[in-house]
Amino acid sequence: MKTQSLHNQLVEWRHDLHMNPQISFEEEYASNKVVNLLKDFGIEVHQGIAKTGVVGVLKKGNSSKSIGIRADMDALPINEINKFSYKSKIENRMHACGHDGHTTMLLGAAKYLAEHGNFDGTVYFIFQPDEENCFGAKTMIDEGLFTKFSIDEVYGMHNIPGMEVGTFGTRKGAITTSENLFEITIEGKGGHAALPHMSKDTITIGSQIIVALQTIVSRKLDPVDAGVVSVTEFITDGKKNILPGKGLIKGDARAFSEKTNKMIEENMRQLVKGICDAYGFSYEVSYETTCPMTFNQPKQAESATKAAITLLGEENSNGDIEPRPFSEDFSIMSEAKPGCFVLMGNGTADSNGRPLHSADYDFNDKLLVIGSSYWSELVEQQLKK
Q1: Tens digits of residue pLDDT in 136-189
Q2: Is 370 exposed, middle or buried (0-12, 13-18, 19+ CB in 10 A)?
């Protein structure tokens, strides 16, 4: 592995980031660490893009070719329950999605490429804030990521618990879903709990809507397609002896295509209208796509897989992996530039195998050398002399 000699440093950096997590657009600790290390490596640094975002620029030779590699830096508002020595020092803040590892892997690649990189062209190391709320990529682009920097193509990576360490996956086309947040407001007429016949109870009608929403995927969606509709909140103005007159249903929908997303929205609006009209309730539906699906361009997916085969072997490199039902705002970068999003196994045992966003999850330190070596291999492949 290209970065094997950096193993101890990578672990030290990752554990330090893990102990000092900060959430969206507040990632000052990670941002400052990235800036200081990049400067130590002799890399040109641009900071303050999307508040805490950082771009490092490393040029070798005379070629005009370039590549962008992106890592996310933000943590989550979760109280960590792990007991190891480097657990989070900040209450209700945790790197429960592995962004501490993503940042460290990109730092490792930056150090290796600055000192030993055999390539001709320019590498842009993109350290992005706020992936979790899906505003970071868009804000960096709005603030000039692709106009100030001449980036030909862009790549991103995520660790995957449940995949063996040392295995790689990507695919042409959609690899992660869109995220779509919906809110359904219903209004009837509140009243006394002992006199339901004199009220229009939002609990009863809201419950019908919630159950009906589950038929969208099971009865409206083509079985060969994939989608998810999840209700996550049902809030009313009722009390122990007061029937509510107002209700708010919130949820999350996922889709691997715009066609499926449109179908989910249309059927949701139709179901809400039908139920509310039947019982004389007023209603309002909002449906907002916060993250589009991540779409890998064929050429970049082939290049990403080729680098993985060189590093990990064909038996550990899957160029046609099943798409994943989570969303990623790297999708916004790969809409703006040809790109590819890749997956790396985080392991199956203990905290490394726990689901992302779990309070007992942890990024696997064994992946640090693999991931940083992969980025280095990809750069040298794409910017070959």
Answers
A1: 999 999 999 999 999 999 999 999 999 999 999 999 999 999 999 999 999 999
A2: buried
Please state, in angstroms and rounded to a whole number, the distance separating the CA atoms of residues 287 and 92.
29
Give pLDDT tens digits for 233-288: 999 999 999 999 999 999 999 999 999 999 999 999 999 999 999 999 999 999 99
Location of each CATH 3.40.630.10 domain in the chain? 4-176+293-382
CB 264 within 8 A of CB 227: yes
Topology classification of domain 4-176+293-382 = Aminopeptidase (3.40.630)
Q: Which tokens belong to 368?
A: 């640090």
pTM of the model: 0.92
Residues forming CATH 3.30.70.360 domain(s) in the chain = 178-289
Cα–Cα separations (whole angstroms), residue 266 to 13, 87, 269, 273, 289: 48, 45, 5, 11, 14
178-289: CATH, from 3.90.960.10, 3.40.50.2300, 3.90.76.10, 3.30.70.360:
3.30.70.360
- Longest C-alpha distance within the chain, in Å? 81
Token pair of 306, please?
A: 């080729």
CA angle 119, 309, 293 (to 5 degrees): 90
Q: What is the pLDDT of residue 260?
A: 95
